[in-house]
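re: ur question from yesterday

yeah so i grabbed the chain u mentioned. its 440 aa long if i counted rite. heres the sequnce exactly as i have it in my notes:
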Amino acid sequence: MSTRRAMLVQAILYLGACLGIILAVQQLWEAERGLQHLRAQVGQVPVEVLLPAEPEGPRPAVVIAHGFSSSKQMMSPFAYTLARHGYVAATLDWSGHGRNPGPFPYDWSAVHAGDSALTRELEAVLAYVRSLPEVRGEQVALLGHSMGSAIVTRYARDHGEIAATIAVSAIFSDVLPAQPRNLLLLTGALELPRLQAAARAAFEASGGGSEGETAGALAAGALAAGDARRLVLVPCADHATVALSPRALRETVQWLDGTFGRASEGAVDTRAVWVGLLAACALVLFWPVSRWLLQGWVDRPGPCPLELVGVLLVLVIPAVAAPLLLRWLPYHTLPLAAGDYVMSLLALQGILMLGLLAVTGCLDAPTLGRFFSGRAWLAAALLTACLVLAVGWALDRTLLSAWPTPQRAIVIGAAFLLVAPYFVCADYVTRAGSRGLNRI
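ran it thru and got these structure tokens back, copy pasting raw so excuse formatting
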């Protein structure tokens, strides 16, 4: 391909990416139309309430709980869908997750026994939601995913005033034939077999059987009587994507409509599609932006081209040794569930990689200084800022807690410092070891 033709193709690609970003932003903006956001801090727990903007008097409410190492953003498809159908939907961040500054209570026995700090957080959020003038206090349902499903199912089992419970990717099966009331179990058809078995066990323990199967779902009882049970294997969904599935969203609305005697109308949430388009287009533009920021620095060759054996040693030994060593090291110092382990793992792996590169003589002081120079840090900060500005705000509204906040400033700074050696070494090995990598 000639240089002129290549430049034309690049120009068309970049123009298309810009247009894609404009379209995605417009659609994400449109998704907010007609909805009202209320944000509150219940103790340490950040709560976001989503409801229709037009006044209609008190409405039924649903408190939505995310799973382990997730955040309230992951559950926003349920919140947006329910708000579009006339419900008040409240999402929360558990301790150690999202914007909740509290440390995660690593006491799984207490979580399953319903006697943990997380259960008390749920009680506080429920009290807050019931106090809202927009909420009909006696019409409250719970929805939880994975770990969140265990907490809300246990709570609803012990509190008969909860009108309905939706357990997504259920992991808790200690239920009763009459409690919780109106139990809907949603599990991805691509879910792990043991989690599918947990959902089926919960269905059977709650009084369901295998004789009422229709349209890929098992059902028993009646919504009007409060003893309805339904188990749905959601097609083409796994543990995470079940929260984005249109089938799961529709099943949830229909279940709650039947519970509260409503006939709501509205669309299911599709913002994840537009976030995907936005992210893809931003990544297309990321390459020229990064080349421009690192011009004159990134193409300098490493001083010691690694052979294949050297590349494998530097990559494989730390990857195997770091998880083993971390078993005996304290890593629950950062108040982030799962994030504390990931950052500690990458930090340890980076230190081991630096040591191996130094021992082999491939990473001397001048080279190390170039990688940790002021320009390198500035470029890394600018590239991170570009990604956050491009897709962070959109992800923060739909899937992940991705927008920096003052509460997380220290954690973000610590994470940046902890993982920097790993990514510096990975970049160095990729370029200095290109001769060895080309043989693979």
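noticed a couple things. The beta strands are 35-42, 45-52, 59-65, 88-92, 135-145, 164-168, 183-188, 213-214, 217-220, 229-234. also The CA atoms of residues 19 and 185 lie 40 Å apart.
anyway ttyl
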